[in-house]
């Protein structure tokens, strides 16, 4: 790819102060070669150069949790009761063919790029998102989901999963990698968690898990009761042993938590849970609008940050919240935790990148990182002192162009 130079009225590197009339230079490998005031950034002859007037140039946004294979299920799963919502979602998924999932994943990736998102952490069981990312020249981690709540079937389930996983490895590249996601404590047995965790660590694979999301999940593990317990009982699955423990402690007992683990939602942790998560060095994917849509409540974001946890925001799926708008999630998180605009913006850039273990590669405009950037149009007469506040209030319709490694993956029609 030829080098590219991008400039804008404002440049917000995130890992440095805003720059008036700033620019970046992206080399032929797609890496940031220079960043600074426009007058200081080289402009070699023959280079592709573009300036965005009335706009701000940001690092490409990083979405810490998506389900892109569910694209197209907007407003089709309406239940308020979470276990009932899951049952309906499973029924809608069962109606789809493999081609349907691939079409949905491709559209989901394109929708992310149109919203300024350049890196995603996606979870799904169809295996289509890693292919869609690779085809689109995208960036992210595609966590392949594992299910299996019966402990007696754990070994066979891991063996089958390894075969599926191996079939998807050809889609990996320098920007797209596979991860592993045993779905949630209400859908995966303790022995399977232990086996998958051990296998993933041997293979140096990132892990993700939906954790401490709902009251029903807590009831299952703490008291062997509630709607998930009823579902297990009806299927002849042994209930958790009593006395029980919190979902976080339960997962830790099965040696699953660690620095390579992304814990999704974590709405209902205890104080000791937060200490345990911080000790294990996990990342957190915080999805404030999805949490509220499912009536789970609000995750203790301020306490997570105070505990030193690596936190980024995610949108979850369109089956929960639509349209996907990462800046709207950042605003919701800021309101929840009393954050200023700078910290809110970090939750969907460098904070999310660090939560995924990708902080050295994406999330900020810094020399040596990937040349991922998004140009956002600004309202006229933006106040310099309120620049970041204005940026955080923009929505996906303000995205003028999105670049991954210097390559344009989205441009809004004039």
Largest sheet: 7 strands, mixed
Q: What is the general shape?
A: globular
Question: How many DSSP-defined strands?
Answer: 15
Mean of the pLDDT scores?
96
| SS field, number of helical segments | 15
Q: What class would the helix/strand composition place it in? A: alpha/beta
> Gyration radius, to the nearest Å?
21 Å
Q: Hey, roughly how much beta strand do the residues contain? A: 15-25%
Give the neighbour order of strands across the main sheet.
3-2-1-4-13-14-15
What does this structure look like?
It is a single chain. The chain is of the alpha/beta class and 414 residues long. The protein has 15 helices and 15 strands. It has a seven-stranded mixed β-sheet, with helices on one face. A four-stranded parallel β-sheet has the order 5-6-7-8. Strand 1 (4-11) and strand 2 form a beta hairpin. Helix 2 crosses helix 3 (128-136), helix 12 packs across helix 13 (341-347) and helix 13 packs across helix 15 (387-393). It is globular. The two termini are 25 Å apart.
């Amino acid at each position: 790819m030829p080098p590219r130079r991008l400039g804008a009225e404002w440049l917000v590197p995130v890992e440095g102060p805003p720059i008036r009339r700033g620019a970046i230079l992206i080399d032929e490998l797609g890496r940031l070669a220079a960043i600074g005031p426009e007058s200081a950034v080289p402009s070699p002859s023959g280079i592709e150069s573009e300036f965005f007037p009335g706009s701000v140039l940001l690092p490409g946004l990083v979405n810490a949790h998506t389900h892109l294979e569910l694209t197209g299920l907007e407003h089709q799963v309406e239940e308020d009761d979470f276990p009932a919502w899951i049952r309906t979602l499973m029924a809608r998924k069962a109606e789809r063919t493999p081609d349907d999932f691939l079409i949905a994943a491709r559209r989901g990736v394109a929708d992310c790029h149109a919203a300024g998102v350049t890196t995603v952490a996606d979870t799904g069981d169809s295996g289509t998102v890693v292919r869609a990312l690779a085809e689109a020249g995208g960036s992210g981690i595609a966590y392949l989901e594992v299910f299996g709540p019966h402990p007696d079937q754990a070994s066979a389930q891991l063996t089958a999963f390894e075969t599926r996983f191996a079939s998807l490895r050809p889609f990996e590249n320098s920007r797209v990698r596979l991860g592993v996601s045993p779905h949630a404590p209400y859908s995966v047995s303790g022995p399977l968690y232990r086996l998958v965790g051990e296998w993933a660590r041997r293979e140096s694979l990132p892990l993700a898990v939906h954790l401490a999301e709902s009251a029903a999940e807590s009831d299952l593990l703490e008291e062997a009761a509630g709607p998930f317990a009823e579902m297990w009982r009806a299927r002849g699955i042994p209930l958790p042993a009593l006395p029980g423990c919190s979902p976080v402690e339960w997962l830790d007992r099965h040696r699953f938590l660690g620095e390579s683990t992304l814990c999704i939602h974590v709405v209902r942790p205890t104080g000791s849970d937060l200490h345990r998560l911080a000790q294990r060095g996990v990342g957190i994917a915080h999805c404030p609008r999805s949490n509220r849509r499912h009536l789970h409540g609000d995750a203790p974001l301020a306490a997570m940050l105070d505990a030193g946890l690596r936190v980024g925001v995610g949108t979850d799926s369109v089956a929960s919240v639509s349209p996907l708008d990462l800046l709207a999630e950042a605003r919701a998180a800021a309101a929840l935790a009393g954050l200023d605009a700078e910290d809110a913006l970090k939750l969907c850039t460098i904070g999310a990148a660090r939560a995924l273990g990708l902080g050295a590669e994406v999330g900020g405009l810094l020399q040596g990182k990937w040349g991922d950037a998004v140009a956002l149009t600004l309202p006229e007469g933006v106040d310099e002192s309120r620049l970041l506040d204005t940026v955080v209030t923009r929505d996906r319709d303000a995205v003028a162009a999105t670049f991954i490694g210097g390559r344009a993956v989205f441009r809004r029609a004039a």
